[in-house]
Each structure stands twice: as C-alpha cells, then as structure tokens.
Amino acid sequence: MLIGKPGAAVTSVSTADADSITVRGRDLCSDLMGRLSFTEYFYLLTTGREPDSRQRYFLDLLLVAIAEHGLVPTNQAARMTHAADPQFLQGAVAAGILGCGSVILGTAEACGAFLLEAEKRVAGGDAAASLRDYAAGLRAAGEKVPGFGHPLHKPLDPRCERILELAEAQGVAGRYCELARVARSAVHEAWGKPLTMNVSMAIAAVLLDLDFPPAMIKAIPILARTASLLAHLAEEKDRPIGFLLAHHAENGIAYEPGP
Question: Cβ(232)–Cβ(79) under 8 Å?
C-alpha cells in the first residue's frame, strides 16, 4: 500500500555500475577523489553544486565552530550508550545525534526560519522598526527568539562574534548577517536586557548569505557534532566515564514520592 503522495522515481545524488561510481554527475574515482576536500564534497552532495572558495572557507569555519562544546547532553548520551554496549559504536553515535533538537543544535534551523521571516517583514522598509515589532510580538506571545541566550557565554558568544567578524572581513556578510545584527538590538529592547546572540544565529546568517539551502541548515551542526561524538567515543574506549556520568546523575537527583 502506497502512503502519501510520491515524488518522481528518480535520484540525482549518485549511481553506479560495475566500473564506475557517479556522484552528482561527476566520476567519483577519476574526478572527485583527490580533488575535493570532504567539506567541498559535502557541499556538492547536499546542493548539487561545487562550492566557490568563500563557501568552502565558511563551511569549514562553521563546522569547526560548532563541533565541540564539552560534555553537553548529546556527548553524555553517546558515552553512556557506549558504556552499556562498547561494541555498538554506531548506536552510541546515533544516541547522540538523536539529541539534536529544538534546544540543542537544531536551533540553527530555527534561526534560519526567523531570518527568512524577518526579511519578509522588512520587505524594503525600516529593518530596525520591523524587527522591533517582530521581537516585541514574540515576547508578548510568550515565545523566544531563536539564537538568543546562552547558559555560559555572556555577554557575548565568542564563536558568534568570530564568525561575524570573518564574514565582514571576507566580504561575505550580506542581508542576513545585517538582519542578525539588527535583531540583536531589537531583542535587547523587547526583553529589556541584553541577551547573548549565540553561534546558531551566526551560522544561519552566514549560510543564508552564502546561498546555502535553508532546509539543510540543520545539517551543519549534525555533521559537525558527529565528529565530536566520535572523538568522545574514542576517548571513552580508553578512559571510560559513561558509567561515572550515570552514577553522578543518580546521586545528584533526589527521590521524591509521587502521587
């Protein structure tokens, strides 16, 4: 039984025969291997285009910026999963990736949606006034503006500032980086206090200015954090702390009889 409306029965990603593998219309062995870096290859895979020098540079930059941030929940979940089954490396990686949600890692995608909506609201008008109204409306509705606030980095997220600094220096900062900067002031005014613009907003702004598909913005933190998960799992094999993390969690949470 077919469920849902199907698309055309085709794929443009790759094909293979006995003698060759073709990826996005290019021969894997005679063309891509040895010519493209993994970052360039990832861009080609996801967009169907090879990146120019600025797109490659900033994709590398963003992957480095978001990959590692200590014993965050995704890394803890992976390490404890690995402790439970040391032979199941892929399962431990999957456990960490499943934690890429609306609070951790998935926020870059939400920031992209916010910036696209902000662009529509501005529509050639006063960006500052439009974003003040947008932020005030979200505040009044009890909602948050994605990309603002951080439990550790205050008043600035150094990763965010470095990304925006390099985007300006390299001539990449465009409409979306400008909207992110205007949003910072609008959010401060709406909340009555400065809130840290975090790395997720900078990632979304730069990717949109570089013509990266909005639907794939979330792919950047997922790909980056996969590398970090593998690093933590490599360490877990030699210096296991998965059960220790679970032990401290058990000791740190008090039992309270429920209804």
Answer: yes
Q: Is the pLDDT of residue 133 over 90?
A: yes
Q: Calculate mean pLDDT across residues 230-234.
A: 96
Q: What is the pTM of this model?
A: 0.90
Q: Tens of pLDDT along 30-39?
A: 999 999 999 9
Strand partners, 229: none
Burial of 146 (0-12, 13-18, 19+ CB in 10 A): buried
DSSP codes joined into one string, 31-82? IITTTS-HHHHHHHHHHSS---HHHHHHHHHHHHHHH--SS-HHHHHHHHHH
pLDDT at 103: 78
Query: 26 forms bridges with which residues in the sheet?
Result: 23
CA 23 centroid distance within chain: 25
Quick one: angle between helices 53-67 and 38-47, nearest 10? 100
- SS3 (DSSP) at 22: strand
The CA–CA distances, whole Å, from 73 to 78, 150, 184, 214 equal 9, 15, 27, 26
Give the angle 179-182-185 at the CA atoms, nearest 5°. Answer: 150
